[in-house]
From TrEMBL:
This is ABC transporter domain-containing protein. Transmembrane segments: none annotated. Residues 4-231 form the ABC transporter domain. Belongs to the ABC transporter superfamily. The lineage of its organism: Bacteria, Bacillati, Actinomycetota, Actinomycetes, Micromonosporales. It comes from Winogradskya humida. Keywords: ATP-binding, Nucleotide-binding, Transport. The keyword rRNA-binding does not apply.
Length: 231
């Protein structure tokens, strides 16, 4: 796992929208930080900058002390796991093949990819023998979300980015996925940036919470306990 540093990070879109103000914060290696705030406060924009889908207008992002803009974007993206709301599994590929996506891009040999895919499916609680050969539409929403997590972790990323990973599933399944995810995180200890607008989820999952507001400003950055005791 790697540390993440945002230094006076800002993003203004070409139309003049200030999506991210002037944000400085540090995420320690192995820490799960939640970005929370109302719609339009810049959460997705921060994730997109971390993933180098878009470039900052000002400031810097460092991963393990290295400026991400000085690295090759494609290489970097392969070292960053990404989980989105509706997973985005490839519909015409089996579950096992989906989980092996990044290892394949990295040129791992077939045996190693298969073994790794099965290991990850086990880790997220899906029996690889039963589910590995199925296709995404043959799984429930909650199961697909677990496959999304398995795929994001397959190549042992430095950092895991999660954009409302549990919001598309119904509330009962969501609670279970959150619990399972906490024990998974205790085992793998990834550095995670997770976006949500669900305060319960933020408190439950976050080691620290970054509260964002209007104009993409950082209003608070604290542990859940400190946030709750400081109204
Ligand atoms: P959030 O994820 O917190 O809902 P976003 O990062 O998606 O916020 O958006 C932050 C602000 O930037 C919003 O005002 C949004 O309308 C605007 N925005 C997002 N993407 C673009 C874009 N490509 N061009 C212009 N404005 C954008
Ligand atoms: P999210 O917060 O999940 O990104 P949005 O509805 O804010 O959802 O944005 C969906 C897509 O539309 C994003 O890819 C974003 O870049 C783009 N977008 C959002 N707001 C604007 C905007 N004002 N102008 C242009 N593109 C935008």
């Amino acid at each position: 796992a790697a540390s993440i540093t945002l230094e006076n990070l800002g993003k203004v879109y070409p139309d003049g929208t200030v999506a991210v103000g002037d944000i400085s914060l540090e995420v320690e290696a192995g820490e799960l930080v939640v970005l929370i705030g109302p719609s339009g406060c810049g959460k997705s924009t921060i994730l997109r900058m971390l993933n180098r889908l878009i470039e900052p207008s000002k400031g810097r992002i460092l991963i393990d002390g290295e400026d991400v803009t000085e690295q090759d974007a494609v290489q970097l993206r392969r070292r960053i796991g990404y989980v989105i709301q509706n997973v985005g599994l490839f519909p015409h590929q089996s579950i096992r093949t989906n989980v092996g996506t990044v290892p394949r891009l990295l040129g791992w040999d077939k045996k190693k990819i298969r073994a790794r895919s099965e290991e990850l499916l086990e880790l997220v609680g899906l029996d690889p023998k039963r589910y590995g050969g199925r296709y995404p539409h043959e799984l429930s929403g909650g199961q697909r979300q677990r496959v999304g997590v398995a795929r994001a972790l397959a190549a042992d990323p430095l950092v895991l980015l999660m954009d409302e990973p549990f919001s598309a599933v119904d509330p009962i399944v969501r609670g279970r996925l959150q619990e399972e995810f906490l024990s998974l995180q205790a085992a793998v200890r990834k550095t995670i940036v997770l976006v949500t607008h669900d305060i319960d989820e933020a408190v439950r999952l976050g080691d620290r919470i970054a509260v964002l507001g209007e104009g993409g400003r950082l209003l608070q950055y604290a542990s859940p306990a400190d946030l709750l005791s400081d109204p």
